[in-house]
Structure formats: C-alpha cells, structure tokens
UniProtKB/TrEMBL annotation, chain A:
<comment type="similarity">
    <text>Belongs to the aconitase/IPM isomerase family. LeuC type 2 subfamily.</text>
</comment>
<dbReference type="GO" id="GO:0046872">
    <property type="term" value="F:metal ion binding"/>
</dbReference>
<dbReference type="InterPro" id="IPR011826">
    <property type="entry name" value="HAcnase/IPMdehydase_lsu_prok"/>
</dbReference>
<keyword id="KW-0411">Iron-sulfur</keyword>
<dbReference type="InterPro" id="IPR036008">
    <property type="entry name" value="Aconitase_4Fe-4S_dom"/>
</dbReference>
<dbReference type="GO" id="GO:0003861">
    <property type="term" value="F:3-isopropylmalate dehydratase activity"/>
</dbReference>
<dbReference type="InterPro" id="IPR050067">
    <property type="entry name" value="IPM_dehydratase_rel_enz"/>
</dbReference>
<keyword id="KW-0004">4Fe-4S</keyword>
<keyword id="KW-0432">Leucine biosynthesis</keyword>
<dbReference type="InterPro" id="IPR001030">
    <property type="entry name" value="Acoase/IPM_deHydtase_lsu_aba"/>
</dbReference>
<keyword id="KW-0479">Metal-binding</keyword>
<keyword id="KW-0456">Lyase</keyword>
<comment type="pathway">
    <text>Amino-acid biosynthesis; L-leucine biosynthesis; L-leucine from 3-methyl-2-oxobutanoate: step 2/4.</text>
</comment>
<dbReference type="Pfam" id="PF00330">
    <property type="entry name" value="Aconitase"/>
</dbReference>
<feature type="binding site">
    <location>
        <position position="294"/>
    </location>
    <ligand>
        <name>[4Fe-4S] cluster</name>
    </ligand>
</feature>
<comment type="subunit">
    <text>Heterodimer of LeuC and LeuD.</text>
</comment>
<keyword id="KW-0100">Branched-chain amino acid biosynthesis</keyword>
Length: 412, 163
C-alpha cells in the first residue's frame, strides 16, 4: 500500500484501494476567520446548538484578515469567538499566525493523522506526513458535527529528486521546477510521495515548502515521510509504520529528477507552472516584493532573505513587505536580529499571518504593477486587477528587492 | 432516482466564474444567489428569462473548474436545475455538488444532444434516454456513497439523519 492507502485504511477501518469511496475518521477539523463564519452558520442551521463531535479536535485559527480590517470582518471574527466559547474549542486569535503552521507548532497533529480545514493549502501538512485536505464550508460543517468526511481514495505518483543543490538554490526552486515538469493538473485526483536524497536531506521548513505547492499541481496531497530528526524536532514520538509505503506499493507513475544543475527558478504571470530560470527574466522592474505565506514564511525563509539584506537597502521606489508565518517565527527572528536587518533595509514587517497571498489584505497592487512573491499562486487578478505576480524563493525575492529588478541571488 | 427535463446546452471548461461571478460572493441568501446562476456565460439573459424548474444542464469537459466556491452549485440548484450532465467535472465542483444535493452525472457522448431536447436520466444505472431523438446512452453514475448523499438532499441532511 502507498502512504495515503495506509492512512485511509486506518481512518476508515477497512483496507482501501484507489478509486474507493470511503468515510474517514478525522483527527482534527480546522476553520479560519475566512470561511469559518459560513461554516458556523451552516452548522447552526442544521445542527442547532448541538456539540461538535469532539471539542478537542476542532480548532479555529485567525490568519487572513487580522487584525480585523473592517466592520464585517470584525463581526465575523466575533461570531467565531462566541462559537469557540460555547463549544469550548480552541481559538488562536489575531496574535498567532497561519493556521497550518500553528497546529504543527502546537503539536496538534502527528504523522498519519487525517485533518481537514477551510484553507486550500491544508495539504502542506503532508510535509510532516499528515494527510491534510482543504474543503468547502458544507464539508467542514459536516466534519465538525460527525468527525468524519468522505473521500475518494486517490492513486499515487512517486517523485524522486536527487542531487546536491547549488548555493542560493532551495526547496522553492525545486518545487517550481517540479511544477514546470508536471503542470498545474499534473497531480489531479492523485497523491504524491516525494523521495530521493535531495528531499530526505531537507529540514522541516523546506519539506513544508515542497508539500504546500502540491495544491498548484491539483494534487490531493503530497507526502514526505518524516525522518527521525524531524520527529525529534516536532517533539513527537510516533511510530512511522502507518505512514511508510510498502515496498510492493503500486504507483501510477514515477518521475525522477536530478537537481545538481538547477538554477534559481521563477513562476511568471499568470500561472504557477509558467516557470523559467530567474536569469531568463532578470532585469524586469518590480514595484513590490513579498516574503512570507504558508509556503515561505518560516524562520529559515526569513533567515535566507536576511543574509542577502544584511547591511543593504531596498531599492528606492520598491516596497519590500515581510510577514512571518507565526508568532514563534517572529519571536525567533527578533532574538536572532533579523528585524534589525529588515527594518534597516527599509522593509515593512507586519504581524504574522497569511498576508499578501490573496486579495482583501493590505499590500494589494495597482493595475500594471509587478511583484515578486514567495507565496504559492499567481493567478490573474488574485492580488489586484492587472497586476503581474512572479513566484520565487526568499533569496530571489530579497535579491530582487535590493536591485529593484528581478535578480538571480547569485548575481547580486 | 429518475430525472426528466429540458436541456440547456453549454460547452467545455465552464468555470465557476461563468457559473457564478465572483462579484456576488458576499451574497448569503440562496434565493438571491439563484438569480445569478450562469450569469457569466453567453446565455445569461436567456437563462434568466426562460429557465423552468426541472431543467437540465448538459456541458462539455471540466465543468465547474476554477475556484472552490460552493455558490456555483448552490446557485444552479436554487435556480431550479434538476441535474447537470457533463463529459467531466472539476474535482471540487463535483464534491460541492454532491454535498449540497445537486444531482450530477458524467456522460461522454454529449455531441448529439441538442439544446431543448428532453432527457430522462436514471442516476443509479446511468441510463440516459433522449426522449426527443429516442436515443439511449450510458453515463457513468456517481459512486454509491455520492448517490446516498445527493438523495438525502446533501451532506448535512445526510449526516443529521445518520446520527
Ligand atoms: S498563505 Fe495563502 S495559501 Fe497559505 S494558508 Fe494563508 S491564505 Fe492559504
């Protein structure tokens, strides 16, 4: 069995095969400030004030419009606070950060768990071997009531990545390269398992970066089996049996890539698979640079940017916006002197959260403006009508902010 | 479950913005949402004026691609559409349709079906009869689990009854 087959077999209580439709028991149900209010309304209209299936397994995170940007959002957030009190479920208010990262930091998920939530990138949890799925409001309302959700068991494809990475080439470049090869529907209705020395050497944040962009390939989930160090880092003492694929597991396809020659990559407007070498588009003038999001907002990401920004200034006329994924990341960035570097360089550093990943957040672009972002999507109109968004690594983003034009960090 | 109705024919890749334009996302009242069903398509005017409750949509491949908005299937269902037949559905649209109790079925040979024809669909067996042309087709029915949820009128009703 593949990893997803193993996890779904446990969660459904039956041995499953690809194509089966199953009910899986859920280990955690997450909703957020955006989407969550509609989940609560749906929930209450069907189930009144009935208790959720398990108050310890429902979590609310505020990560999108934080602190509340207008009255409607403020009212929605209060609706969730009230629901949390009534149902006695945990709520991580505006001073926490991105939900998926919070539940990892808080030890609320362990490898092999099945987790559902209202965000499209719940599947970044696959980076630590957790089966995370983003779903609609009806699904989450039902999940909260029953503690179960229905799934179609996907087939699995295997992606093997080998080779050492050049300086300034990291996890984001690797996943952009894979996206280029597989395309935005390359993993449709499928799970991915990532293997190979390049992946196995990766630390927690790099694994999350890889897993998060399985969404952009339309995949259900992408798994990286945690190493002993990852488990230790997470403070988890989990038996990995349930999340290691069997040697005779069946894969629909196997892709093998070598990344020794890989250069810094960049996804050009308006599709995450429109990927080129950074040098091919170097010199394009930018108006704004964003470093953050669930894909690249962790400490190692900020650190990579700080190494380039140290003692430098952001090009005049360019706005650099940096947003840590969580408060713990921000704290560490503070004690390690990163804020000093960022603020001296002229960056705007805001409170932890999703920030410039989607419309509705401060930092939106004017028509025709160009931004290099470390986030995961660059669909047309997502960050302002007529805006041009490029996706790249924190190092490429930092180099670009300093130069004011798209810049390969090796050429800084 | 047998569904009989008049056809509205649409092409390939009808995305969620065509089914339900993003500018109406703030609406929460379902009867209000219904007024904007298919408003982003080139048949918006006609659809709004001539739609009868019980009508059926027949479309090409990848129906409902785009965003995950549940408003898309909700608006179609509330507008009175009894079933959507398509060559294929986008994953999230399919899931959302099942969850809100909008019957859907996949069928390859939609080419011969004309706008305005009357179809009779057996959701369990997948047998689709064109009562106008007298031709019979076989569609791919949904899984048993999806059918149960659709028949219950959607996921939340299904779960409520199951408790
Ligand atoms: S950063 Fe964007 S994709 Fe990631 S969790 Fe937040 S809204 Fe979702």
């Amino acid at each position: 069995m593949t990893i997803i087959e193993k996890i779904f077999s446990r969660a459904s209580g039956n041995e499953v095969r690809p194509g089966d439709y199953i009910w899986a028991a859920l280990d955690l149900v997450v909703m957020r400030d955006f989407g969550g209010p509609n989940v609560v309304r749906e929930y209450q209209s069907y189930f009144d004030n009935n208790k959720v299936f398990d108050s310890k397994k429902v979590v609310i995170t505020f990560d999108l419009h934080i602190p509340a940007r207008d009255e409607r959002v403020a009212r929605n957030q209060n609706l969730l606070r009230k629901f949390a009190r009534e149902q006695n479920v945990r709520l991580f208010d505006v001073n926490n950060g991105i939900g998926q990262h919070i539940i990892i930091e808080q030890g609320l998920v362990r490898p092999g768990d099945v987790v559902v939530g209202t965000d499209s990138h719940m599947n970044l949890l696959g980076g630590i071997g957790v089966a995370g799925f983003g779903m609609g409001t009806t699904d989450i309302a039902g999940a909260m009531f029953k503690g179960r959700a229905w799934f179609r068991v996907p087939t699995t494809i295997k992606v093997i990545v080998n080779g050492g990475l050049q300086e300034f080439v990291g996890a984001k470049d690797v996943i952009l390269f894979i996206l280029k090869k597989l395309g935005t529907d390359g993993a449709l209705n499928r799970a991915i398992e990532f293997y190979g020395e390049t992946i196995e050497r990766m630390n927690l944040e790099q694994r999350i970066t890889i897993a998060s962009m399985v969404t952009e390939m339309s995949g259900d989930i992408g798994f990286i089996t945690p190493s002993a160090e990852i488990l230790q880092f997470l403070g988890l003492n989990t038996n990995l049996d349930g999340i290691v694929a069997d040697p005779e597991a069946q894969y629909e396809a196997v892709y093998e890539f070598s990344v020794t020659q890989l250069e810094p990559q960049i996804a050009c407007p308006h599709s995450p698979d429109n990927v080129k070498n950074v040098r091919e588009v170097a010199g394009i003038k930018v108006d704004q640079v964003f470093i953050g999001s669930c894909t690249n907002g962790r400490f190692e990401d900020l650190k990579a940017a700080s190494l380039l920004l140290k003692g430098k200034k952001v090009k005049s006329g360019v706005r650099l916006i940096i947003v840590p994924a969580t408060m713990a990341v921000a704290q560490k960035a503070l004690t390690e002197g990163l804020y000093e570097i960022f603020l001296s360089a002229g960056a705007v550093v805001t409170n932890p959260g999703c920030a410039l990943c989607t419309t509705g957040h401060p930092g939106i672009l004017a028509p025709g403006e160009v931004m290099v972002s470390t986030s995961n999507r660059n669909f047309i109109g997502k960050l302002g009508k007529g805006a041009m968004v490029y996706l790249a690594s924190p190092a490429t983003a930092a180099a670009t902010a300093i130069k004011g034009v798209i810049c390969d960090p090796r050429d800084l | 479950m047998i569904i009989k109705g008049r056809i509205w024919k649409f092409g390939d890749d009808i995305d969620t913005d065509q089914i339900y334009p993003g500018k109406y996302l703030p609406l929460t009242d379902k009867s209000e949402m219904a007024k904007h069903a298919m408003e982003g398509t080139n048949r918006a005017e006609e659809f709004r004026k001539d739609l009868r409750s019980g009508d059926i949509i027949v479309a090409g491949k990848n129906f409902g691609c785009g965003s995950s908005r549940e408003h898309a299937p909700v608006s179609i269902k509330e507008a009175g559409i009894a079933c959507v037949v398509a060559q294929s559905f986008a994953r999230i649209f399919r899931r959302n349709a099942v969850n809100i109790g909008l019957p859907i079925i996949q069928m390859r040979e939609i080419g011969e079906i004309q706008d305005g024809d009357i179809l009779q669909i057996n959701l369990e067996t997948g047998v689709i009869e064109n009562l106008t042309s007298k031709k019979v087709y076989s569609g791919t029915p949904c899984s048993k689990l999806e059918l149960e949820i659709m028949k219950a009128g959607g996921l939340l009703r299904y779960l409520k009854e199951a408790r």
